[in-house]
Specification:
The protein has 425 residues and is of the alpha/beta class. It has 3 domains: 68 residues, MurE/MurF, N-terminal domain (Udp-n-acetylmuramoylalanyl-d-glutamate--2,6- Diaminopimelate Ligase, Chain: A, domain 1, 3-Layer(aba) Sandwich); 205 residues, UDP-N-acetylmuramoyl-L-alanine:D-glutamate ligase; 124 residues, Mur ligase, C-terminal domain (Protein-Tyrosine Phosphatase, Chain A). Strands 13-14-18-15-16-17 form a 6-stranded mixed β-sheet. Strands 6-7-5-8-9 form a 5-stranded parallel β-sheet, sandwiched between helices. A 4-stranded parallel β-sheet has the order 1-2-3-4.
């Protein structure tokens, strides 16, 4: 079946599913394969549950009139998404980076949706499957689509760009994330920059932080660029007035009081402000969008439980984001500070030195109550308390009384699931 024919079917059934546990009536089921599953085997189950059609790539499962046999299901999904992206008239903004992608995406959405019919990547559906699914959420009346792109190896962003074909792009930063897959920091810079390479090649618009020396050096004079501390005159001058703990921003004579913690979120807000200005969103609407955005899903959340203030940033971690977070926490005013840090994953051979560096930084910043969790942190040379597993930490917390006036900071890679600490408070 040609992609144009499949797209006509999609227009009649504009909802896609890849999981039979979440099938809705009239979904198109794409029978994807993984290391431990074969979606073809669930095609009939999907149809029984109400799927309009099941797209499969193994002939032996083409036993129902509602199955559509293709050469490769994943490739078909990606081609369909690209076809649909051009069928609709929405402008596509793509963003990537080592840290802050999802928060920045949500802030841009909060601002642009004030003026435009806007869709954005849901959660972190930002890989070779998530990007196509996000593009298929574009509707004929969508004006702007914000597509997040994640990667952990070379050429992945290049490939995702070929699917989304963005009109605009932004890289949040280059940090020490996925070092194992990218082959070091230089590999991260090269891999993430594939978004800018695509945009430059196709004469599209790049938004960039000209205060970032890496981006400034790479892009030089060839693109529309802006800084955050002093923005080009056709944009706003943006300053951060405080971040203790919430980021406060001044734009012209307007004060914006966000619900985001951490000075590192200032640049994320700036990206949303500048894009809002570029797309002619009124400053009052930009202010409303940013002030109403409330982080969730363990990303820079501020909680209070039994009198204890908790800064929960346990969605993910890498050396760059961990360093920024610790420096920010050191500057916050609090009577008693407790630091719970979990292992950082995907660092390859650099894991020992990167974990040691974070332990040393915690000591250097003067934290007196630091608790390190995970196999990597357990091997560092430090006088901080170390726990090889979460279970051993859990046993400790059952006997430990956290001071009522304490402020806790919790951060670690997603696999550490450190949000579980909150249950012990």
């Amino acid at each position: 079946m040609k992609i144009a024919e499949l797209h006509n079917i999609f227009l009649q059934n504009p909802s896609v599913s890849t999981d039979t546990r979440k099938i809705n009536e009239n979904d198109l089921f794409f029978a994807l394969k993984g290391d431990n599953f074969n979606g073809n085997q669930y095609a009939l189950n999907a149809i029984d549950k109400g799927a309009a059609y099941a797209i499969i790539d193994e002939e032996e499962f083409a036993v129902h009139e509602k199955t559509i046999l293709v050469d490769d299901v994943l490739s078909t999904l990606q081609k369909l998404a690209n076809f649909h992206r051009h069928y609709c008239s929405a402008k596509v903004i793509s963003l990537t980076g080592s840290n802050g992608k999802t928060t920045t995406k949500e802030l841009i959405y909060a601002v642009l949706s004030k003026e435009y019919r806007t869709i954005a990547t849901k959660g972190n559906l930002n890989n070779h499957i998530g990007v196509p699914l996000s593009l298929l959420n574009i509707t004929p009346d969508t004006e702007i689509a914000i597509i997040e792109m994640g990667a952990n190896h070379q050429k992945e962003i290049e490939f995702l760009s070929s699917i989304a074909e963005p009109d605009f792009g932004y890289i949040t930063n280059f940090g020490k994330a996925h070092l194992e897959g990218f082959g070091g920091v230089e590999g991260v810079i090269k891999g993430k920059s594939e978004l800018y390479d695509y945009l430059l090649k196709n004469n599209k618009v790049i938004f960039m932080n000209a205060d970032d020396p890496i981006q400034k050096e790479k892009l030089g004079q060839y693109v529309l660029k802006y800084g955050f501390s002093t923005v080009d005159s056709k944009f706003y001058t943006i300053t951060m007035t405080t971040a203790d703990p919430f980021v406060r921003i001044k734009v012209e004579n307007i004060d914006i009081k966000t619900q985001l913690i951490g000075a590192y979120n200032f640049t994320n807000c700036c990206a949303a402000i500048v894009m809002g200005k570029y797309f002619n969103v009124a400053l009052e609407q930009i202010k409303e969008g940013l002030e109403n955005y409330l982080p969730d899903n363990n990303r820079s959340q501020v909680l209070e439980k039994n009198g204890v203030r908790i800064i929960l940033d346990a969605y993910n971690a890498n050396p760059s984001s961990m360093t920024a977070a610790l420096e920010n926490f050191a500057n916050l005013r609090a009577t008693t500070k407790l630091l719970f840090l979990g292992d950082m994953f995907e660092l390859g051979d650099t894991a020992p030195e990167e974990h040691q560096a974070i332990a040393d930084l915690a000591k250097q910043l003067g934290f007196e109550n630091t608790y390190l969790i995970g196999e990597n942190f357990f091997t560092v040379d430090t006088d901080c308390q170390k726990f090889k597993t979460f279970e051993t930490l859990s046993e400790f917390l059952k006997k430990y009384t956290i001071p009522a006036d304490a402020t806790l900071f919790i951060k670690g890679s997603r696999g550490m699931a450190l949000e579980r600490i909150v249950t012990h408070i």
